[in-house]
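Exercise 3.2. Students should predict the tertiary structure of the chain below and write it as structure tokens, then compare their answer with the key that follows.

Predict this chain's 3D structure.
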Amino acid sequence: MKILLHVCCANCAIYPLTMLRQDGHDVTGYFQNPNIHPYQEFKRRLDTVKQYADIADLQMIYDENYRLEEFLAAVASNPAERCHYCYSSRMEETAKLAAEQGFEGFSTSLLYSRYQKHDEIRGLGEELAARFGLTFVYDDFRTGWQDGIRESKAMGLYRQQYCGCIYSEKERYLPKPKAKGTDASG
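Answer key:
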């Protein structure tokens, strides 16, 4: 099957691409990630996907538009629900492009991450496939978590430390307040 694979980052694409190719699919990647912030992080991940695509001989389509304002307008009133926006907006763009360009199906490297809401991603994929007349190619790529990590390190790829949005960057790096009664002086 001719598949358009949404690529959230190079590291998460390694194992899904390997498995899809082993299953005989003709895979093209699609980088479309308006959720990645700040700009330097967006650019670094985009450049790393380009590096990986060269290594893996993966044909890619790139949306290089940095949409900070659009992302913030969509999630700022309820940051706790931002993941739904991230999944649905990127997967909808992938399905739409797949339909327009004659692909038979689509998938996403989000299915590789142990940190994503897997059932929500699968449900969205199936809904979008029905709407656009495509097949959502589902697989639980989390089984290859360690394989992908090993391969990305062996390739020397940049390995990001948070999901992508400014909120996940805050959750990753902002020091957590100490619980009361844990201070040695008190």
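Discussion points: The first strand starts at residue 2 and ends at 6. The longest helix spans residues 82-100.
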